[in-house]
Write a structure and sequence with these properties.
Elements lengths: L2 H21 L10 H17 L7 E3 L4 E5 L7 E5 L19 H7 L1 H8 L8 E5 L12 E6 L1 H9 L9 E2 L10 E6 L8 H6 L10 E9 L5 E11 L4 E2 L6 E2 L10
Helix pairs in contact: 1-2
Length: 257
């Protein structure tokens, strides 16, 4: 066997492994860079070569993010930077020129509706980023899916407690006393939840924090978002897993017309 033949066989094997990883990356979550390899080595090259960014649903090279269907649940998607950004703790998320990945994620909710096969009301969505302790992948990814019904109900009953500054809620959601603030507007625009959290002197280290964004209608009838934060805590056995406020079974859609 010549060295050229050997090289070709090795390349073929690598491509087969990469393709399998792209289809089933959740099965190798023990590899913390699996998600990065899917986006960087499969989706982005496919988008550049033929504008078919498999296995991603979409890649926007100009704005620097990809959308990937998560194997957990029927509807959930992940919004992932095409640059190497490890997670909520990465200084790159706070850089002056950093994309507002939360706005990109919010605009990508149409992929969730497409997976559901039906329109989804604005207030039935939720977005989340987990802490370092609460995640499996060392590539930033924002979970986009349906909101957990009890989280939506509890927040709606306490809208009067939400304002433009952070405060600890007078109730718990999923057994955690989240802190929260209000963001006014139909969309986020230039409002970056990472920067809102980083500017709060009462926050935990960014690596320990988790963020959840839930669209709602304010007490004044105007649209906005409840931005919730929590953090890892050895004392309370919390792992900073805000994704728990998302419902990958989309129960908010059951029985809806």
């Amino acid at each position: 066997m010549t060295w050229k033949t050997s090289c070709v066989l090795i390349l073929v094997c690598l491509l087969v492994v990469a393709a399998a990883l792209g289809r089933n990356w959740l099965r190798v979550r023990s590899h913390p860079n699996a998600l990065w390899h899917v986006v960087h080595d499969l989706c982005v090259p496919d988008e550049r070569a033929n504008h078919l960014p498999a296995p991603c649903a979409s890649v926007d090279l100009a704005r620097g993010f990809a959308v990937l269907k998560d194997e957990a649940g029927r509807t959930q998607v992940l919004v992932i930077p095409t640059a190497k950004v490890t997670g909520i703790e990465d200084p790159l998320v706070l850089a002056p020129t950093a994309p507002n990945y939360w706005e990109e994620a919010w605009e990508s909710r149409s992929f969730v509706a497409k997976n559901a096969g039906r329109p989804i009301p604005r207030e039935d969505f939720a977005l989340a980023v987990n802490s370092v302790e609460g995640r499996s992948q060392d590539q930033l990814h924002i979970h986009v899916d349906c909101v957990r019904p009890e989280a939506k109900t509890k927040l709606a009953a306490h809208l009067g407690e939400l304002g433009p500054t952070w405060r600890t809620l007078d109730f718990d959601i999923r057994y955690r006393p989240y802190r929260a603030r209000w963001i006014a507007g139909t969309d986020l625009g230039d409002v970056n939840p990472f920067k809102l959290l980083a500017a709060d002197p009462r926050r935990a280290p960014m690596a320990d924090e988790t963020l959840v964004l839930i669209p709602m209608t304010g007490a004044d009838g105007a649209p906005g978002f409840a931005l919730l934060s929590d953090h890892t805590s050895n004392e309370h056995l919390a792992d900073g897993h805000g994704e728990v406020l998302l419902d990958h079974n989309c129960r908010v859609l059951q029985g809806a017309g």
